[in-house]
Amino acid sequence: MATLKNQDQSYSASDIQVLEGMEAVRRRPGMYIGSTDQRGVHQLIYEAVDNSVDEFMAGYCTSVKVEIDNEGVVVVEDDGRGIPVDVHKRTKVSGVETVMTTLHAGGKFDSKAYQVSGGLHGVGISVVNALSSFLNVDVYRDSKHYEQTFSRGKTTSDLSDKDLESGEKKTTGTRVSFKPDTEIFPDLNYDFGILSQRFKEIAYLNKGLKISFKSNWGVVELIEEDDEMLDDDDLSEDQQMNLFENKESNQDVAKNKMREVEYFFEGGISQFVVDMNASRVALHEAPVYVEKEIEGTIVEVALQYNDGFSESVYAFANCVNNADGGTHITGFRAALTRVMNDSGRKYGLLKTADPNLSGEDVREGLAAVISVKLTEPQFEGQTKRKLGNPEVRAQVEGVLGEALQIFLEDNPIDAKRILDKCLTAQRARDAARKARELIIRKNAMDGGALPGKLADCSDKNPENCEIYIVEGDSAGGTAKMGRERSNQAILPLRGKVLNVEKAREDKMLAHQEIRALIIALGAGLGDEFDCSKLRYNRVIIMTDADVDGSHIRTLLLTFFFRHMYPLISEGHLYIAQPPLYRVSKGRKQEWAYSDSHKDELLEQFNDDSRINVQRYKGLGEMSAEQLWETTMNPEDRSLLQVNQEDAMEADNVFSMLMGDVVEPRRNFIQENALEVKNLDV
């Protein structure tokens, strides 16, 4: 053992720091909510909502209301039983104060108050309290209205109560109001789309629960200031007109930012699957659905095949999305593969000598949701991304296997249509395997040669390297001349890559540009894709700032999402941000990356001198020096990292925009056309 010399060797109990409850949460918030960025802010809301959902699953709640005001204050209200207000025997304070100020306190540990709960660790609402500048609780129960306030995890008022007024309809429920602490979350921000999608998921998973969400966050408050300024008698007519137009603009912005949604699904996860397939053509009219309680676990599964080539299967345990799967996914896949093979042989579609269908074969074009609700969930990690209960595998496999077998026997026409698709997938997968082997063999014969069009970098340490995927030979040539050769590689693509949403893997692997991309990255494809084998730490899409460039970028994103998903989930994919304009006057020049930025520069340059504005529609219009200066120099460039908070929503968007069904795409374009910026046709 090595010995440290010339240092103070004393180390006693006095050196061990003990952080009490809420202090520990505030000191290390990431340990409890994952991060202190927008995701952490959202997590506080989810923790509060989960408590209300637990009340619904226990049978005592029918609706949850979530509201965010313009100041960032969040209100979560339900019509459940209300948090207990009697004095807790051990803590000697009320149940409200106990759950708000004590970690691992709640009604979820002895399985009496809650048979099923999304929270395992019992830290949810107390962590919300610890990380909020203030938190107020209103409890309605026992014909009384109780109130108590907190701040940064500490109690700031005693629990007070008053009788409900005669006209007050609310009899039971809880309302929690809080504002995330800007000391912990310096960039306080909410995303309406991400939050509403999560609430939509919860409503799907709990048929009969109504969730309403309203947000005024981000609404500008300049209208009152405009009114005050308009009262100024010294303003000229032109100034008054400008202010009046500004007021109208502010009102429009406010109206657009005030958004409200409500979710209620009587069909539950069956409706979830139908909606997932809205942009696809379903192979059978109604989803296969089963719900059954087995050994204390409620197993609920819905599945429906479509004519697409991608698999969309999502698993939840106690309403928690298990993005990394777990034992319920394992049981689901085992049942699906076994029953499909048994049915294939029963119907004579699989002969005695034929090989079995693989798991990939039977999951092509499958949309499914698996939801299990159990008393003692065993999640891996605080984020609960993977379910570990071993007994759940057999429970899901047994329940789904029985239901799926009955469906295929009762619906022979649908069964044959599904099995025909599985067999076609098997043949295509065999062709794709041979195509992969041919690529590998050709590489080996060429000494592991990289694509000839690739201008590789000299540094062989992937951590230091990045590759630019560039649209066209012209831009590729400019990028090759302007790059830093030691660590920047350039791969120009000719034309538009294949739309993989409409093509099986064998056809995709026959596409020259996609083959070049797979070989250049060197990390494989699909289930075999391994980020540890990536030849470049950053993969950067760099396309022209026009319609064609946007289309090529979307095609590439579709390919990466469907066939190299870890590239996105592990943070290796980026989009370059080339400038749209060069604004110059004499020898002075500035680069504008948006129309608003250009307008700001024009105001700065605005005098009697001549101003030149050049619009860059293609990367090839720039010199190598300009491309380096604006887009490729790591010290000055701006890169957008590709990520997605919600894989299900991304899945739906790619299917809608890139699939065969026209109507959902048309509706999407009509609804979002006015949001398009920098459109060049």
What key attributes describe this structure?
3 domains, Rossmann fold, 18% strand, nine-stranded mixed beta sheet, Ribosomal Protein S5, domain 2, alpha+beta, single chain, 681 residues
CATH level-two architecture of the largest domain: 2-Layer Sandwich
Helix content: 25-40%
Estimate the strand proportion: 15-25%
Mind describing the biggest β-sheet? 9 strands, mixed
Give the structural class. Answer: alpha+beta
Going by CATH, the homologous superfamily of the largest domain would be: Histidine kinase-like ATPase, C-terminal domain
DSSP helical segment count: 22
> Looking at CATH, which topology of the largest domain would you report?
Heat Shock Protein 90
**Outline type:** globular
Q: Show unreliable segments.
A: 1-8, 11-19, 221-226
Mean pLDDT: 84
Rg estimate, integer Å: 29 Å
First and last CA, distance: 70 Å
Please tally the β strands and state the result. Answer: 22
CATH top level label of the largest domain: Alpha Beta
The count of domains is 3
Report on this model:
The protein has 681 residues and is α+β, with helices and mostly antiparallel strands. It has 3 domains: 21-215, Heat Shock Protein 90, CATH 3.30.565; 268-430, Ribosomal Protein S5, domain 2 (2-Layer Sandwich); 450-578 and 640-675, Rossmann fold. 39% of the residues lie in helices and 18% in strands. A hairpin with a 2-residue loop joins strand 3 and strand 4. The radius of gyration is 29 Å and the shape is globular. It starts with 20 loop residues before the first helix and ends in a 9-residue tail after the last helix. Residues 1-8, 11-19 and 221-226 have low confidence and may be disordered.
